Amino acid sequence: MACATVPSLVLLLFAYVNAQWDPLGNKFNPIPPGTFRGNSIWPGTFRGGVFDPNWRNGNHNATVTTADGQTVILVTINGENYTATFPGTNLSISTVSGTYKNPNGQVVDVFTITVNNQTYVYTTINGKTTVTNGSGQVVSDGGPFHVTSR
User: For the residues of 87-124, what is the DSSP string, one character each?
Assistant: First the structure.
């Protein structure tokens, strides 16, 4: 009986010790550092969308800064930079931009900004920009960026 018990206990001891042993260490990482940065398996041509660093906050066509109790928004509309200044620093701001071709084959650039539930839509077709409010009515003063058709 002792001949069967001793090898069984030794086998259990080896199994227990082997289960406690971590041959790769607790800092093992099967993916080398830097694999997904720079010149790696991902091409460097991904731009826009979720690959845009500002995608998470929605301000992928606007720069928002605060200074001296004011909020300043810088945007590019029809290839030109525009600035709007709003009083206060606790504003709700969201932007969306996109480009598409209309049924006439013209390229249409649309930039929409909503500040504290006031929406302005800047639509550019053939270099001419039209500003409308959230209801589609033309805003004659060019909205907060004072964009006028040229």
Answer: E-S---EEEEEEEEE-TTS-EEEEEEEEETTEEEEEEE
CB 84 within 8 A of CB 49: no
Residue 91 domain flag: yes
Q: Is position 33 within any domain?
A: no
For residues 25 and 33, give the distance between their C-alpha atoms in angstroms, rounded to a whole number: 16
Number of domains in the chain: 1
Mean pLDDT of 128-150: 87
- List Cα–Cα distances, 92 to 51, 86, 138, in angstroms: 24, 11, 23
3-state secondary structure at position 74: strand
Q: Is the pTM of this model over 0.85?
A: no
State whether residue 63 is helix, strand or coil. Answer: strand
Distance in angstroms (rounded) separating the CA atoms of residues 94 and 149 = 23
Domain extent, residue 84, equals 61-145
pLDDT in tens, 68-83: 999 999 988 888 889 9
Residue 32 lies in a domain: no
40 pLDDT exceeds 50? no
Q: Is residue 102 part of a domain?
A: yes
